[in-house]
Write a structure and sequence with these properties.
It is a single chain. This protein has about 270 residues and is an alpha/beta fold. The protein has two domains: about 5-90, no CATH class; about 100-265, Zincin-like (2-Layer Sandwich), CATH 3.30.2010.10. It is about 35% helix and about 25% strand. It has helices spanning about 70-80, 85-90, 100-105, 150-175, 215-225, 235-245, 245-265; strands at about 5, 20-30, 35-45, 55-60, 60-65, 110, 120-125, 130-135, 140-145, 185, 195, 200-205. Helix 4 packs across helix 5 and helix 5 packs across helix 6 (about 235-245). It binds zinc ion. Zinc ion (ZN) binds near residues 222, 226 and 232. The site of zinc ion (ZN) has 3 residues, from helix 5.
């Protein structure tokens, strides 16, 4: 049996956005079977949501969305009733591993649709407080200092590469679709590959460069399609199918393969 405690229930005024969304953060401490777990839950009341929906996005992060007609109490009860399910699901997720180990075991980086996926060598040598990167034909070396900062520096190196190369990957996709993003931003979003704002800003996760090439392109096409359809309606999927055949099945593949990528470098 698992015990579930609600700790750190934040009751500040909820964040309000244009479509009357409000969110609350809840930390679930699940104690049991020699396997204590902490799961961060974002509980979101949404004008767009038709029914209650609980998803575990990472081993330690769940998202619960529920429609406006439901109360916060009902939503929290729903969360509570699904504690065993959350716990079980959480154990199915890949264990977080470091980026250093991932690259050592063959993890690759792809910088654009026109480039090959390259192996990555992490070089611990220089006395440096910033990572530096060398691009070779079939390899990328990320030079970092040894010690505590190593993992953070590898991640910083990855972000740097993404900031440098993702904008031209987007441009490549823009030319093929005739759609144009206003701005491109690169971030380290916890569970999202990308998003698109009403102003046309496309935000992309730096981890896209860790995906196989076709999946990386898929994320970019997906966000560009949102410039015309700000939802996941049938129209949206039709638009996206024009750029990526079998978009829905590619999307499922992304969810599946993305789990490992999202768990990387979160070992602390
Ligand atoms: Zn979308």
């Amino acid at each position: 049996m698992h015990l579930l405690k609600f700790v750190n229930l934040k009751n500040q005024p909820h964040r309000q956005t244009h479509n009357l969304e409000a969110t609350k953060s809840i930390v679930l401490d699940i104690v049991g079977a020699g396997n204590p777990q902490r799961i961060f839950c974002e509980v979101r009341k949404s004008a767009r949501s038709r029914r209650i929906n609980l998803k575990l996005k990472r081993a330690d992060f769940a998202l619960l969305t529920f429609p406006r007609r439901m109360s916060w109490q009902m939503a929290e009860k729903f969360l509570h009733d699904h504690k065993d399910w959350l716990c079980r699901k959480s154990l199915e997720f890949p264990k977080p591993i470091s980026l250093a180990k991932y690259f050592l075991e063959g993890g690759r980086i792809c910088l654009s649709h026109q480039m090959i996926e390259r192996e990555v060598k992490v070089v611990e040598s220089v006395e440096t407080d910033r990572p530096w990167i060398r691009l070779e034909n079939d390899r990328i070396s990320i030079h970092v200092s040894a010690g505590d900062q190593k993992e953070a520096m590898i991640k910083e190196g990855g972000r740097k590469l993404a900031s440098q190369f993702l904008p031209s990957w987007v441009q490549w996709a823009e030319e093929r679709t005739g759609l144009k993003a206003g701005r491109v931003r690169i971030g380290d979003q916890a569970t999202r590959w990308g998003s698109c704002s009403h102003r046309g800003t496309v935000s992309l996760n730096w981890r896209i460069i860790l995906l196989p090439r076709d999946l990386g392109s898929y994320v970019i096409f997906h966000e560009l399609a949102h410039l015309e359809q700000m939802n996941h309606s049938e129209k949206f999927w039709q638009k996206l199918e024009g750029f990526v055949p079998n978009a829905r099945s590619v999307d499922r593949k992304l969810t599946k393969e993305g789990k490992v990528i999202f768990s990387l470098g979160r070992t602390e």
